[in-house]
Write a structure and sequence with these properties.
The protein is α+β, with helices and mostly antiparallel strands. About 40% of the residues lie in helices and about 15% in strands. Strand 5 and strand 6 form a beta hairpin. The longest helix has 27 residues.
Length: about 290
């Protein structure tokens, strides 16, 4: 498989930004009410992909490094229950070729919401703990309403059929993790017996990384989910799984300790992802 095919994930990220922009228009009133006009402005610069402004925020105001390597990324195993926060809104680009990596300051780590308060997480818990049908959850009803209005819904679903397929997928995912355990993207890639690793990776700045749960660490040492793995994390918490793989992408500069020293965090070597890690500018597979 050509590396350029993997980099096409950047184009997919651009389409995702379009849906994020439409979604942002729907939620801007909530952002202003809960976080103020400054947060709305900062969030809009990311959603609208205003490069000059996001560059200023990320690199000059918050001090994140411009030139990054795999050394700024931490591959870890984490206790799912130690992840209690998700981002409410985020003034930093976290996906695709312009994603921020490494340590930075500022108040980006304060714009959070409890993970179990996210509507999709509530729906997953209602489905697999209480045993109710997907159609009875508020997440499903909201997704149907948005799709009927022509707006992007749950994981970019556009139709009722898309939403039902998403629900079927989550039923299958829960059953698979329950029966076979939580598997890393490297394990899933090996089981696929395919040379196409694109379904198992995403571009993050100058790197191609496995599609694992991605995290930030606040100044207080709190783990914050920032991208990917939301459904898998919710299921892992329900099933009381001890540890799952994750990637720590950004860290607040005032943390004051190594992320591997945090409770529930265990470092793993990049060799665990020998087929799924690339440094794009070197065009060289990282196998060390």
């Amino acid at each position: 498989m050509q590396l350029s095919n993997v980099a096409d994930a950047g184009e997919a990220a651009s389409m995702t930004n379009l849906w994020q922009w439409l979604d942002w228009l729907q939620t801007s009133e909530d952002i202003v009410r809960e976080e103020g006009l400054e947060s709305l402005f900062l969030n809009a610069t990311t959603v609208c992909n205003l490069r000059t402004i996001t560059d200023y925020i990320a690199y000059r105001r918050y001090g994140f490094p411009r030139d990054t390597t795999l050394d700024e990324i931490h591959f870890v195993m984490v206790d799912p229950k130690s992840i209690q926060l998700d981002f409410r809104s985020m003034p930093l680009p976290l996906l695709g070729e312009h994603a921020v990596i490494g340590c930075g300051g500022g108040n980006w780590d304060r714009s959070t919401i409890r993970f179990d308060e996210k509507s999709v997480v509530k729906a997953i818990r209602e489905r697999f703990i209480e045993g109710i049908s997907w159609s009875e959850t508020s997440q499903y009803r909201l997704a149907i309403t948005r799709a009927d209005r022509g707006l992007p819904a749950w994981n970019d679903c556009r139709t009722r059929e898309d939403i039902d397929r998403r629900c079927d997928y989550l039923d299958d995912l829960f059953a698979s993790i329950l029966e076979h355990g939580y598997k890393s993207q490297q394990e899933l890639f090996e089981e696929a017996h395919s040379d196409d690793f694109a379904p198992f990776v995403h571009r993050v700045d100058n790197c191609i990384l496995p599609d694992e749960l991605r995290l930030a660490i606040s100044r207080d040492g709190e783990l914050i989910r920032i991208a990917h793995g939301r459904h898998r994390l919710a299921i892992a918490q329900i099933l009381d799984i001890d540890q799952i793989p994750a990637i720590i992408q950004i860290i607040h500069r005032d943390l004051g300790q190594s992320p591997e020293e945090l409770p529930g965090v265990t470092p793993i070597d990049t060799d665990a992802y020998r087929d799924l890690i690339w440094q794009i500018d070197s065009l060289e597979h990282d196998s060390n």
